[in-house]
Amino acid sequence: MFRKAMTRRGIALVLLLILVWTGTAFAFETERVSGVNFGDYGQPAYAYLQYIDSRLPDRDCVDGRNTDEARDWIAAQLKAGGYTDDQITVEDFSFEDEDGEEHPSQNVIAVLPGQTERRIIAGAHYDGTGAGDNGSGTALLLETACRLVKGDAPPHTIVFVFFGAEENDCDGSAAYAEGMSEKEVADTDFMINMDSVICGDFCYLHGGVADFKQKRVVGLEAFEKVFAIGRRLGLGIRQHPWTFDNPAPGFRVPDYPSPSTGDWSDHISFVERGIPYVYIEASNWEIPGPDRQYDGDSETADAGKIMHTKRDTLKNIEKLFPGRTLYHLQVFSLLISTALREI
Fold this sequence. Notes:
The protein has 343 residues and is of the alpha/beta class. It has helices at 2-5, 8-22, 43-55, 67-81, 135-148, 171-178, 182-187, 221-233, 267-271, 314-320, 324-342; strands at residues 88-96, 102-112, 119-125, 157-163, 188-194, 202-207, 209-211, 216-218, 277-283.
């Protein structure tokens, strides 16, 4: 009777308690697609992430001991990857913490000229204290920037931005977006946001803005193009399942009707300037919570929450989910690099 009464979340909790008591890690399976030749996609990002995790773990935007070093390291990697000094800019801005104290921070920007002056902005925040959040997005953006600079000019100019102070109300992306001229906004087709791409159970793509009055999601052109590329490549990219016609259990109306998402990451700064976005993440939007309602907090069904915990290290993630980190980086690297070469 005890086994029958236990929910999946209860079993996971017991396993995690045993993990704490014994120091033993349980390995959980990662869903993978078959028949895709990833080549070396994702491998440079994995190497970058290893460095970030081991050498630059404390990138807290207020008082992180590795934050300035991370900023300088990113600029150095871009230069080593093929960008000239003229293509790399470090943008200063300041922000207030929750106590009203002002702090300096920087965005690191690399511009890859394309065949036209139309622009796509690809961004990830480098502040934080986790391998997943957001060492993974930083590593993926670095690989993408350094991979594309070596090939033919992309169809449109690509602006790679490594944002500071995302963990403080997305202040870095807000500073960048607010500083864009009206012409720059008009010339920008969309923004790609890379945030927390390794820990979660599944690979998701989000896009569009919810119109709750009309019960629809608008601004989906960029999302549809990138999602179609993912389907063509057989990457198993998901949209989360909760729509106006199919709200999550316990909700009459979805908070974030698919394929849209919330305002908790850097894409929102561009939405506020009228710029469409696509947002990649690894998560699990189907974990049941209390009374079988949608949980909305954890990224993994079997191991619970990783983000914003001390468990967000590469060593821990590899113990819990062997091979997941590289696999998710492979999926997203192939998707985003292909999209930026084609769109």
